[in-house]
Specification:
With 521 residues, the protein is of the alpha+beta class. The chain is 37% helix and 15% strand. A hairpin with a 5-residue loop joins strand 15 and strand 16. Helix 2 crosses helix 10. It is globular.
């Protein structure tokens, strides 16, 4: 019987990432995952599901040559967050509830990050936290697309803060679309995930004609192909007119047996039940949904970036996954690198002195964010957000081309000017002022969108989650590169390209060995 190994997990991650991963980050991810799982159980109290032999059960996710995803039923992330929250409450840790970041603060000598300026959503108060070390881990901004899986307020705040502070980003064109987002009309559930374990367990995809269309796109792996391939296949079926009446495809798990589905995917069953459907007994309409950003702030294996005093981890950081994230590697990354960032921050806090910030800098930031209250009229933030979502979906989504990306870039520059003129109708209330908070959200969203589009225009090939219909082939001779960018003068984008560092494995050593056949349940 063949056994899994760290090396096999590592090679799967590189192959899934189109070979542009930062190999040191990817190796740290896979090599430190087992000890992180152990710590989550022993120290945090997050007990993962067990197999019949008492060992931790591992289920199948797409792109994996072995079933290796550790889980708690089908809602692992929620369980981990809940147990981590318990650990915070059990300690004397100051928590600012209902508080958001506005911007990072630099030291008086401009050489390091020394904390952040924050806003209490409940009271409207803006205040400063001076810190020896700052960690940014706020998640990505997939909500820039009209169909997306994250919560509505996941708008790239951390990335935008890092950008304005001068951080360098890598491969921002790489945005993952999950193949199976729930179709739920105008409900907030529209675009929410039906998890990959369903396809890993044998659930099938059909188009509106009843054809199992993955037989056309990846006859060897079918629904267990990598996310980028399955999502793009779904999109192409819909665009070819073979989708359902609601511009979707069908996910069918009914043949697995109602008892199996209800026992193994209770969270997904409940989610589908909320829109009046029965996942265990009937096919359900799904569509690709914006889910995850592989690009982000460039970091090293200690979560440090080009700015002293700043650590970045999770979806705010880039490089680990390359051009496409494998299923199961997302929670793995957030726990491995979250743990790493915490350990490094603790060490640095003991070594570093507290550095002061400029009061004038903090005041300038405060006044910039309060500007919408000072304008008696201006642009409507909700209209701007709606336009962004449509613009990104149509011109910078699953299938891209140069002319549409150029149009998107030009319009985003205009929208950046428009959001600066947005105003708050209720000018005399800062407490729970959601219009003001939406202006902050959309400002950050546009900031990240510009980086995504700029990088996508630059990469004139197709690789992983980035597909250019005008450059449909992967060009390993010319584009085995990472694309870096940071803020230049006048909020412009400075872009550079660097060859991928292949310090552990070269592409040729892995490419001709396609994923081993995975066993079906």
């Amino acid at each position: 019987m063949k056994k899994d190994s760290l090396e096999k997990h590592f090679k799967d991650t590189l192959k899934g990432g189109g070979f542009i991963n930062n190999q040191e980050l990817a190796w740290t991810l896979v090599s430190e995952a087992p000890k992180t799982v152990h710590e989550l159980e022993v120290k945090v109290g997050c007990f993962f599901d067990r197999a019949e032999n008492g060992k931790i059960h591992q289920k199948a996710f797409a792109g994996q040559s072995f079933d290796r995803t550790v889980h708690v039923a089908d809602l692992s992330g929620i369980q981990i967050v809940s147990r981590m929250t318990d650990q915070i409450f059990a300690r004397e840790i100051t928590v600012f509830e209902e508080t958001r970041g506005l911007d990072l603060l630099r030291s008086k000598d401009e050489e390091r990050i020394v904390g952040a300026i924050l806003s209490n959503i409940r009271t409207g108060e803006i205040f400063v936290v001076n810190a020896k070390v700052t960690i940014v881990a706020t998640g990505g901004s997939a909500s820039m697309y009209k169909i997306s899986a994250p919560s509505f307020d996941k708008t790239g705040d951390g990335m935008a803060m890092c950008f304005r502070a001068g951080a360098e980003f890598v491969d921002m064109e790489m945005v993952q679309f999950h193949p199976t987002g729930l179709i739920a009309g105008r409900s907030r559930l529209n675009g929410s995930l039906l998890e990959e374990g369903l396809r890993g367990s044998g659930a099938r995809l059909y188009n509106g004609l009843g054809e199992r269309f993955m037989e056309r796109y990846d006859p060897e792996h079918l629904e267990r192909s990598t996310r980028d391939r399955v999502a793009r296949s779904c999109f192409m079926e819909i665009m070819a007119g073979r989708g359902t009446e609601n511009s979707a495809v069908y996910l069918d798990a009914s043949h697995l047996g109602a008892e199996f589905v209800e026992e193994n995917f209770p969270g997904m069953v409940e989610r589908v039940k909320d829109i009046g459907k029965d996942l265990a007994r009937e096919k359900v309409e799904v569509t690709p949904t914006a889910h995850y950003q592989m690009g982000g702030v460039g970091i090293d294996t200690r979560c440090q970036c080009n700015l002293k005093g700043l650590l970045v981890c999770g979806e705010d950081a880039g490089g680990t996954h390359g051009a496409n994230r494998l299923g199961g590697n997302g929670i793995c990354e957030s726990t491995v690198y979250g743990r790493k960032a915490g350990d490094v921050a603790a060490d640095l806090a003991l070594e570093e002195d507290m550095h002061p910030y400029l009061d004038s800098q903090a005041e300038k930031i405060r006044m910039r964010w309060l500007k919408p209250f000072l304008q008696g009229s201006g642009e409507n933030v909700y209209e701007i957000r709606d336009e962004i979502e449509d613009l990104m979906w149509e011109k910078a989504g699953l299938v891209r081309n140069g002319s549409k990306l150029t149009e998107a870039a030009h319009r985003l520059d205009q929208l950046l000017e428009k959001i600066d003129s947005a105003y708050v109708a209720d000018r005399y209330r800062a407490q729970y002022n959601m219009e003001w908070n939406n202006i902050i959200d959309v400002t950050n969203l546009i900031t990240v969108c510009r980086m995504v589009v700029n990088s996508a225009r630059c990469r004139e090939e197709s690789r992983g989650a980035h597909y250019r219909e005008d450059f449909p082939e992967t060009d390993n001779e010319g584009w085995l590169k990472n694309i870096y960018q940071k803020m230049g003068d006048g909020f412009q984008l400075e872009l550079t390209q660097k060859p991928v560092v292949l310090n552990r494995f070269k592409r040729e050593e892995i490419e001709d060995r396609f994923f081993e056949k995975v066993k079906q349940h």
